[in-house]
Amino acid sequence: MSEVVAIIPARGGSKGVVRKNLRRVGGVPLVARAVDAALRCPGIDRVVVSTDDGEIAAVAAEWGAEIIDRPGVLAADESSSESALLHALEELDARGVDVGIIAFLQATSPFIDVDALAGAVRLVRSRRRDSVFSAIETYGFLWEKGSGGAAQAVNHDVDVRPRRQDRAPQYLETGAFYVLRAAGFRSSRHRFFGSVGIAEVAPRTAIEIDTTDELEVARALGALVDRPAPIDAAAVVTDFDGVHTDDTVRVDQDGVEAVTVSRADGMGVSLLRAAGIPFLILSTEVNPVVSARARKLGVDVRQSAGDKAAAIRAWAADRGIPLARIAYLGNDVNDLPCLEIVGWPTAVPDAHPLVLAAARVVLERRGGEGAVRDLAERVLAARAADPSPERRQRDEASGPTAPQEAS
């Protein structure tokens, strides 16, 4: 039987926002967000990313997509999306894939409405429509600049200003997705053909990223739009100050420092260790308090880590754990390089604004008040929610399951 195949074109040479398809919104690269949306759509059988870029290909594959190597001539600034889709169809034909319906997703739309996408797939599959695109309802009065820059009305009579409720809506493409009957697309070589339908989506999901300003707006919207997600991590790495502690320190008359930690955090780490989930405390400074806490918890610790991201990479490589399967919990700007490379960048709720913007998950509990326990419970909940053999194989492939001793 023919398949419904999601095709995501994602070239490496974007100009307006350099390396755009790898930029993160809600802690997840844009291309990965598109792959995730397609994989969550119940009507889609296969997810493919077409790219000319090795790094994009690696990220997309890590998130579960098949990769089609796109020739550079089809990835230039002037190349059309249609040309990438047609090339992908040729490659899929060569692989023996019978494509009946194409779900064309654009990674530059970070908030793809999965329910609307599924509805569009059903509409095309039912043969009621040949092509369906995502759009928002609008009642806006549109203008254009005429000769000499003078404004001219486009979709309304300037002498009549009807109320919203007295006007019929119009629809604006969001660019997030287009669902196409494959045979019709091959024939027309364009995304619109035959009977065209509209899949309405919520306005707050309609942002399309072409500029750095739009990227920043999308990052600000992420916490409002993204669905809460269990933290499906195979390992946990945390900062210390402001995460295990409330980011304050008491100093006595002899200069001896003391901090406050949460017993709940200790239990959370203990539960992670019992589940065989590796745990690392990573600190920029050398402090006997950190070493003592790591010994108490029975976990790995790395101090004097001037380059914290490099330290995580080395630790993960030693254990065979993909970065995409690591949850990192931080609170301040020196944690940003770590948050940018892991699959589950996580922040405490009182973290620096830049950290909150980079996080995929913001916890409910503050540092020193059970933040680590909060993270531990979410990681364990994700594992309990998916006891499948595939999940066990994925965890086994992510490194050792034995608790790690302090070092």
List keywords for this structure.
407 residues, alpha/beta, 6-stranded parallel sheet, 13 helices, 19 strands, 21% strand, globular, disordered C terminus
* Strand order in space, largest sheet: 5-4-1-6-10-7-11
Please tell me what the overall shape is. Answer: globular
Unreliable stretches covering 5 or more consecutive residues: 400-407
* Class by alpha and beta content: alpha/beta
Most strands sheet: 7 strands, mixed
Number of helices: 13
- Please give the radius of gyration in angstroms: 25 Å
Kindly, what is the distance between the CA atoms of the first and last residues, rounded to a whole number of angstroms?
55 Å
What does this structure look like?
By secondary structure, the chain is an alpha/beta fold. It is 33% helix and 21% strand. It contains 13 helices and 19 strands. It has helices spanning 30-40, 54-62, 81-94, 114-125, 182-188, 212-225, 263-274, 288-297, 308-319, 336-339, 353-358, 371-385, 389-396, and strands at 3-9, 24-25, 28-29, 46-51, 66-69, 99-105, 131-138, 143-145, 151-153, 170-181, 196-200, 235-238, 250-251, 257-258, 279-282, 300-302, 326-330, 344-347, 361-362. The strands form five sheets. A seven-stranded mixed β-sheet has the order 5-4-1-6-10-7-11, sandwiched between helices. A six-stranded parallel β-sheet has the order 16-15-12-17-18-19, sandwiched between helices. It has a two-stranded antiparallel sheet with strand order 2-3. Helix 7 runs parallel beside helix 12. Residues 400-407 have low confidence and may be disordered.
